[in-house]
Amino acid sequence: MTYSDFTLDTVLETFQVTLSQEELFSDVPSLDVPSLLQEILDEGLSLAYISEKARSEIIIMPILLTVRKHFLRAFSIYSGQRFDVEPASGLSGECDFILSLSPPLPIIQSPVVMLVEAKKQDIEAGLGQCAAQMVAAHRFNQKKGTPITLIYGCVTTGEDWQFLNLEHEVLTIDSNRYYVNDPGTILGVLQAIVSHYIRE
Predict the structure, then answer these.
(1) Pick from 133, 200, 139, 141: which is nearest to 165 by CA?
(2) Which domains does the chain have, with CATH numbers?
(3) CA nearest 135: which of 159, 153, 162?
(4) How many CA atoms are closer than 13 Å to the CA of 15, on its beta-carbon side?
(5) Is the bond preceding 103 in cis, omega lying within 30 degrees of 0?
(6) Could you identify which of 2, 69, 120, 154 might form a hypothetical disulfide with 93, taking C-beta atoms 3.0 to 4.6 angstroms apart as the criterion?
(7) Hey, which bits of 53-188 come out as E strands?
(8) Over 90: is that where the pLDDT of 43 sits?
(9) Using one digit for the tens of pLDDT, what is the confidence trace for 111-159?
(10) Lowest-confidence pick of 20-24, 38-42, 55-59, 134-138
(11) Which residues contact 107 (CB under 8 A, 6 or more apart)?
């Protein structure tokens, strides 16, 4: 069993997690979109629907890099790396994107604060996978001596963005969904998430 085998139900049952839904980012402002990012999105959107890999490279990574630049490269982005935390529990496999507060190194370092999962179409089908990765991040941080109580996640098709968080065994799905035709709001949400860990 790996991350991709998990559904929301199996995450809740296996790891004794409670599910809730609420508005997580009600007061987040829309940010100005850098012209370079807007050009990339305008040019790349027509190509991004070919595959999950295309979505990751053309839409998701440029958005994450824009946020990283805003925070003066204060966090690392790991793309397409294995994150084998507890294979016996199914907490193993590849993650599309992992955000860590460590310097960029060849292997993933703690603390891991956010997971982003790219899906070709079905966001709901990716929620269990992302939630399992978030549970793994929580346990990984604990094992490495950098416990963080709040872990964020996101499942995105590139066009639709669904955010969630995990805190004290409560998994909360944002009642709002965000869309790439409003990239300023997506940037605002991501900036709010990173600001929870890093002072601007």
Answers:
(1) 133
(2) 3-195 (3.90.1570)
(3) 153
(4) 30
(5) no
(6) 2
(7) 76-82, 94-100, 112-118, 150-156, 160-167, 170-174, 178-179
(8) no
(9) 999 999 988 778 998 999 999 999 999 999 999 999 999 999 999 998 8
(10) 55-59
(11) none
User: What does the block give as tokens for 161?
Assistant: 């963005």
User: What is the rounded distance in angstroms from the CA atom of residue 19 to the CA atom of residue 139?
Assistant: 19
For residues 55 and 76, give the distance between their C-alpha atoms in angstroms, rounded to a whole number.
20
Mean pLDDT score of the chain: 94
Q: Are 93 and 3 in contact (CB under 8 A)?
A: yes
Q: Say if residues 90 and 6 touch (Cβ distance below 8 Å).
A: yes
Q: Determine contact, residues 116/64, Cβ cutoff 8 Å.
A: yes
In the predicted model, what is the mean pLDDT of residues 99-105? Answer: 94
Q: What is the DSSP string of 103-142?
A: PP-SS--SPEEEEEEE-SS-HHHHHHHHHHHHHHHHHHHH
pTM of the predicted model, to two decimals? 0.94
**Token pair of 125, please?**
């089908």
Least confident of 2-6, 19-23, 123-127: 123-127
Tokens of 142: 């604990």
